Amino acid sequence: MIIVADTLVMLFSEVLFFAGGWLFFMKQLFRDYEVQQRTVQLMFSVTFALSCTLFELIIFEIVGVLHSSSRFLHWKLGLFLILFVLIVILPYYTAYSVFKNIRLIQKHIVVPLSVFSWMVFIYFFWKLGDPFPMLSPKHGILSIEQAISRIGVIGVTVMALLSGFGAVNAPYTYMTVFMRPVSDNSITQMERKLSQTMDILVAKKRRLALAERERAMAVFSRGSEEGGLLRRLWGTVSPAGSALREQINTLETESAGLEELSRHLFLEVVELRNMKERLEYSQTWQGRYFNVMGHFFSVYCVWKIFMATINIVFDRVGKVDPVTRGIEIAVKYMGFQIDIPFYSQHISFILVGVIVLTSIRGLLITLTKFFYAISSSKSSNIIVLLLAQIMGMYFVSSVLLMRMNMPSEYRSIVTEVLGDLQFNFYHRWFDVIFLISALSSIGFLYLAHKQAPADTDALS
Amino acid sequence: MMQTSISLSKSKTDLSDASRDKVKILVLGEAGVGKTTFAQSVKGKAVRNPTWTVGCSVDVVEHSYKAGTPQETLYLIELWDVGGSRSHRNSRHVFYQNAHGVILVHDLENRKSEEALRLWLTELFDDTPNCVNSPLHPSSSFSRLPTFDTEGLAGERSQMPILVVGAKLDMAPQRPRSQIATDCGVDELTLDCRQPISPGSTNGLKLSRFFDRVIDKQTAPTERRRLTSQGYNVVDRRRRLY
Questions:
Q1: Environment class of B132 (CB within 10 Å of its CB; exposed 0-12, middle 13-18, buried 19+)
Q2: Other residues' Cβ atoms within 10 Å of the Cβ of residue A68
Q3: Sign, Cα dihedral of B90, B95, B98, B103
Q4: Which pLDDT does position B120 carry in this prediction?
Q5: Residues of B numbered 33-72 whose beta carbons fall under 8 angstroms of chain A's beta carbons: which are they?
Q6: How far is the alpha carbon of A323 from chain B, nearest alpha carbon, in Å?
Q7: ipTM of the assembly?
Q8: pTM of the model
């Protein structure tokens, strides 16, 4: 009876998450495109709903909602479902969509080809486990642990890459120290240069059109008046004809050069205007707030890079989670008399809740930006499927890593359900990839900053 | 376009006059709808795999104004194919100056590209760029656009000829006439841009009529018309630009 009531609660929340994913897809992701394949939207929403269910179960674990045996049941069920979606359904459907869109492939080969490529995917997915010290051999081949360990590696890599880049990019974007001043004059000058280039280009194209018309007429009119093949050929190779051809070739090369120049100038105007908008934004209240936050973020970023290096160099493994450590410090060194279980529960609830919400929001925003940048009307469906796959793997691995942030009495369920994984390995792997990602982002942003167009007004 | 030998000699003498007149038509629409393919097919060339247009690419096509009548003259029409990427929105206004007509292209497969055409018209007739690119919000470039105003647009419409083109007909053959063409009361072409436009077909005739209307507006004396106040301002601006 209890199990039925709990299941109803879980089902209700899952429907809520499904609706949330559906709305996000329609309003944000597919803002510019018409949804023609509802299946894609369905899969995205299902992946999102299952991931959110996992987070919800962690929170229920901390707060103590629902019966513990039904929680365990739903854990197992949710994990199994999301693994099934991530390993079987999404890769197969992605391969199927790709092959369906390629015109050269006939209809009856599409399905066998998709099944074949799915098997190739499974093979490489399996091989992923070889170089990493992941499992103890006592578990069987088709256990949840095998699948989760591999998904964990991919997901942790994605998490660390995004985290490293985000930690470096946030202070760079928010802080005004990095923004170059742009005067209105330089923008107007650049725009004027662009208009002038376009005018010259148009004049050349008009001359080109007239020259081509003359050439067409020369061949045609001579042919229609005298009607001989030889005469028509003579028209093209005569001195007058070849001079015309040369003129056309010159005009064509000059036009191509001017077009390239106009594109370059246009992109410079875009960059100048973007920088000006950023400067204007930083003067507003929101902008100033983010500027201050940027200073905190840069300190946080440096600290994280430092800690990652220390962890790797000294092979340090954190045994105690921050909540318990914080409470320890409060009790021992500051002498507060507090009710440890009560505070431990509430603080870890708040901490885990904040982490869950910010990671969901952060990932959705990143996915949206990514989607807008690379999608076109033809590839939008396939890109959404790939993004759904990444999202699922990301959320599963964040459940894995979140274990470290919880006190030991709540860790047990995660350990029990996820099995005998080497959790320390995943933290170490996160640190390594985070370090690589942060350092290369710093290098990349430094180069991009150097190459930004200089303000010509300031130079003159 | 090929003509008979009679009009050849006639238009050759008129060439030097009419070919100096600037006739500029903008080709606008969302990214990837087929503007570049359309401009090339008007010129008579087929483009197999066009790349994203960055900035603006110009094509010059010949057009016989009032073909088949004694007043037939040859004009050189510039088609300015403006790139539709959203991230370049703040700088596109450089290309919009001194335009005499506009062709709006939408993708028949994607209904949202047709709805976006209203925003394109608003962007065109409201010359000042006023978007704030917040570093956080992914879709902020459209958050500050003025809302679509049918009356103002109808007023402006009477000055600048508009043609609506639905591309990619081979992918979606069953679409009805688009809403914006009905709202503005203008012609609409639906075609597969990879096929050439033959001059005698319906599409060819509509295109020819549109070009004639643009040339009429460009060379007509600027008379005072009864317009809304917004429309009057646009006429004023146009006269100053000339």
A1: middle
A2: 11
A3: negative
A4: 87
A5: 33, 54-62
A6: 30
A7: 0.74
A8: 0.75
